[in-house]
Each structure stands twice: as structure tokens, then as C-alpha cells.
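Same chain as my last thread, 322 residues:
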Amino acid sequence: MFLLRQPSAGRGRKLVLLACLVAGLQSLFLVGWTSKKVDIYADGQARQVTVNQWLVGDFQSRSQENLRIGDWILPLPGGWFWPGLKLFMARGTPVAAEVAGQNIWPREPASVASELLNREGITLGPGDRVETNLGSEDPHQYIRVIRVEDSIEVQQQPVDPPVVRRPDRYLPPGQEKVVQEGQPGVRYYKYQVRKENGVEVERRLVDTWVEIQPSPKIVAYSSRAYPEVTARAGDTLMVIATAYTHTGNRTATGIWPYRGVVAVDPRVIPLGTRLYVEGYGYAVAQDTGGLIKGKRIDLFMDSAGEAMRWGRRQVTVRILGD
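reply #2:
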């Protein structure tokens, strides 16, 4: 014979709690897999959508709302969905951001520059500059980090040697001679240079000095003057005669040279004087030359070959007059 025992009061309460828990889990499971109507407020509009997700974060990752970096959503992504839930979404403000001329983010919400820089792990150097309009009402938000680099540059340049001229009474009149070749010196220039994003924007001279002094070039020149001997009609002179040909230039008297034109030193033979040159013939003094000094003349030839064949000769010149 079996006896049917009644459950105790404590055990009954446990069974009731277990049944409630199972029912709650079933309800939660059904809620999770049952479509729910949710009101979404975004972009200034309100609309109702049907969701099947349990968590707001699941909806955020799978939705077609085109959520982007910087957009935010309430309730937070870890919250649960319940029928009748109101979901609020806000768009982050687009930010045009660049560091040292390089774009780094297409969008990033922030109210102050330091917040954005800290978030992205961007540190500023002692001279770096930040330009931004974050926090303003301008719809085109931007932030620019300009890398500023200050440095010292030292450059060197040669210093031309000075020329010192010294008289020398032993040199023939009109001649010069280099006694000592000069040596260039060295001058240093110290600049303070500023670069922004790698581009030089400022260069300021802060110091300069001569590190190596130049040595002068010494040139001796004749201190003897040409004798003031002006030939007159009927005079006969012994001179050194050379020859030249076309140079593409007019003569000192403004005419184009031709055979019979002679370059002279006007202090000895005045321009315009008619001459008879031994071995050359009749001629007129109508030109001058840098090397034609004293008793020297230069005879014009029609070709370079003739001038070379003439060479350098000592000849007799008879002054015929003007």
C-alpha cells in the first residue's frame, strides 16, 4: 500500500519561481524573435520601423540608416529593444582635417580641437600651429595642424680678393704686370629658417663673419708717361707696325675699315694724318687701339692671312700732313 505525500510549502514556492523564470525566458525569447515596432527619430524626421534584433547595437550594425563615424544613437548600443522603444539618432558634423598637409579623417565630431587631437593620438610640437573653426556655427568644420620647424643654417660664400695697383717706374709706358695673384677669402652667413609642413616660409640673417681673409691681387703699372711727341708734316718716324683685319666694328672715326686705314696713338700721330708706311704704302690715321701706344701703328689688311704674313715689323713712316 502506497501513501501519496503532499509537497512541502518551501518546495512549492521553489517550483512556482522556477515556472515563472521559464515563462520569463520564453517571453524574452519570443520578444527577441518577434518583430517589434520602433520609432526612429533621425535627420529631423520621425518614422516607425520593424526590428527583429534584441540589442540596439545589433540594429546599428545591420541597419540601412547609413550610420557613419561620429554618428551617435540613443539608447546606447548595449541597450535592449522593447516594443514601443523610441530610438534617437544624430549625425556627426563633417570635419575636414589635415595634419602637415595630409588629409586624415573624412568625418570626426568634436567641439574643441584638443578633444579631436587627443582622440586621434596626435601630439603637437613646440612650434606647431592649429587652425580650426570647431565649435562655430559654420557647417564646413575644419581643423588643420601645421607642423612648424625652426632651424639654423650656415652657408659660406667666397670673398673676391681686392686689387691693389702699384706704380712701377721700370715698366715701359702703358704696360702692367701682375706681381701677386690674389686668393679669395671665405665669408659665413648664419640664417634662422622656418619651415611649415616642410616648406620654407621665412629666412632671416642673424649673423655674418669673414672666416678667411682674402689676399689681394697686386698689379704693377708703369708710372712713366709717353713722351708728348706729335709728328708734323715732313717728319719721319721709326715705329713698330703690326696688322689687323675685319672685326665687325667701325673705326674710332666712325667709318668701316678698308686697306689704307691705320690705327695710331693720337698723341703721336693725330687722327686724320696722311702717311706713307714703308712696305705698306699710302695710308690715313683713322683708328686707334688699346695696345697701340707711343710709336706703334696697326695696319688694316683685307684678310687674316695678310695680317699674319705681315706680322710685326719695324718700319719708317713719313708724315705727309692732314
